[in-house]
């Protein structure tokens, strides 16, 4: 899931930079950090609740719940991806 959020962040930053190309490297880094913090702030409570609720069950149930919640698909190694 982390890879997917990074892909989205990178795509949105690229889109922003085409509209505001004069942003300095420092401003670009600040925007990227801000996006990361917003995503983490929004996702962390949900991920924590899923983890806590699934501690009494097996990890496959947790993976299944996260896959369904975030529309992720398992890759060839069984890890979730979108």
TrEMBL record:
Residues 1-72 form the Tetrapyrrole biosynthesis glutamyl-tRNA reductase dimerisation domain. It holds the Pfam family GlutR_dimer. InterPro entries: 4pyrrol_synth_GluRdtase_dimer. This is Tetrapyrrole biosynthesis glutamyl-tRNA reductase dimerisation domain-containing protein.
